[in-house]
């Protein structure tokens, strides 16, 4: 049960926070949505080792698709989520066919370029997307026909929590399945995996596509709950923040993504409330300290501290 | 024909700005293998110092530019000693993250010091004048930018190919261990090269402020642009950066003239196709 302990604890923590911060439900819901996005990044980057700074492209595609679907076709939330997943997965697959041919820095750069193109298209297609004003007028029907979205955001919170938990379960099974293990193998040594007959390219495209679907799901969730999609959905800042949250928590373990997101969002919230102009300074210091002192993320902190107190200077290395 | 000449002149001036800011990045990324997303931050620091020297201390333009470059280098050198030296050994992603963190610190510092509004660097009278080229008038400022850009590539070529420093630098790049065993102080060489890159970024940031205006969020806004120049040119290749900067500058200028609504889309699509076909860039060596 060791592997299920941390996620169960985190789920309980979210429920406790729901009762502890009843006037901050929008903030808690935002955390849940970011958790879904960062989980998708953990599959792509933490497990498959695909370095990307353009996860916002897939998130934004899901958000705009779900928003437009709700306005023009059908306002059912679950159908909208499926549309969001589809949009993220299709964009990831199409761009992945090109992106996965490259590695390292070039790959990072191209993922940024894809997000920039999406941003520009959304900006220019004003008639469809609302351009810089954002996509407005999204009205959702009740979830499952039973739970209407309310003004305080209770439904939004439970709805997001359910989706985040399902995504976590899905990824937990996927990463333990043979496919997930082969991704880990590719991450460790592409040559070795190619030598035993694995098609590295197609595995990477598949992983990127699944990750894209989940990122699109996060975007769709955000569009439905905030009832607004802005150009920010495609921004470089969003991709960078998702990456920071993931590394903060620790890559390659799904609950690391959850811990990292929660810490980042709370620090961000606190720093922005205290000094809205210089929260970037706090985030910058946080990022640098993690990279330098806890390169494996916060989840590696307890063992690192333990070995420090045991006095073994080289323990753990 | 006039349109063509307009595109050529504006494109080359824009390309020179891109070159001056990016070449330092090409040197540091190619040499030290550090993915330095904070490079645009040094252009920001240069521009901010230039703004401060001219606007608040009332110095004339050129002395202010010189002082601003020196101030930027004075910040870059200790940063290299304390932070970058540790980053060299990290993986790609860790480097990306550390330098994003550093960029945030630079943005927040400039924001705290000078606010988030536009930081103007007024040009002296003789740079504001125009010269008549026959088919159009051109601000002297653009000509100065093109001249300084040409001087920069000539200077870099001489420095790297014709001086002892250049020989040692190339040796340190090719094989740091062996170079160091032969008695070359690679630590010092790398620090000097890093300072040079930061200084060039500052110069490019100040001279380019007319085209790419300076404010606190400058590094995030143009980060992608500088990285793309280096990636398209090929890391560590100064000639590659030069060709890429001129080519991309002209391409972007041309699309802004011809299809203004789709300029960015055409630009990025071109970059994606080019890097998909040639991942190591125009003049980069293929990684093995």
Automatic annotation (TrEMBL), chain A:
It is found in: Cell membrane. One of its GO terms (molecular function) is branched-chain amino acid transmembrane transporter activity. The keyword Transmembrane applies. The keyword Amino-acid biosynthesis does not apply. InterPro entries: ABC_transp_permease, LivM-like. It comes from the Bacteria. It is a multi-pass membrane protein. Pfam families: BPD_transp_2 (PF02653). GO terms for cellular component: plasma membrane. Its main location: membrane. This is High-affinity branched-chain amino acid ABC transporter permease LivM.
UniProtKB/TrEMBL annotation, chain B:
The keyword NADP does not apply. It comes from Pseudosulfitobacter pseudonitzschiae. GO terms for cellular component: plasma membrane. Signal peptide: none annotated. InterPro entries: ABC_transp_permease (IPR001851), BCAA_transport_permease (IPR052157). The gene is livH. The keyword Transmembrane helix applies. Belongs to the binding-protein-dependent transport system permease family. LivHM subfamily. Keywords: Amino-acid transport, Cell membrane, Membrane, Plasmid, Transmembrane, Transmembrane helix, Transport. It is found in: Cell membrane. GO terms for biological process: amino acid transport. The chain crosses the membrane at residues 12-32, 60-84, 96-114, 140-160, 188-212, 224-246, 258-277. One of its GO terms (molecular function) is transmembrane transporter activity. This is High-affinity branched-chain amino acid transport system permease protein LivH. It comes from the Bacteria. Pfam families: BPD_transp_2. It is a multi-pass membrane protein.
